[in-house]
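Could you join me in thinking about how sequence relates to backbone shape in a protein? We need material for that, and I hope you will provide a protein of your own picking. Once you have written the record down, we can walk along the chain together:

…
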Amino acid sequence: EFDRVNKEYLDYIKGIKDPILRHISLYFVQYYIDGYYYYRYSQNSQKDGACDYLKRWLQERKDLFTYGEKCPTKMTLWKDKVEPLWEK
């Protein structure tokens, strides 16, 4: 359930035409928000561990989506659509 994902994120993600990239983006935002609420009162080492895990999860999805960064078209999509999510 994506009840914590606000409308701004959902509208942005709905605008992503590639269904796989849309799926990755939605779960990335949901995991980020869930992690924030779960670890917000935790020690920094636990927060860092959770952040590292999320980064590894996202890197794995990037490798799969972009064929190991060998597909320029997929790389452009990733840079244009997923990377801005870190800034929102």
About this structure: The longest helix spans residues 44-65.
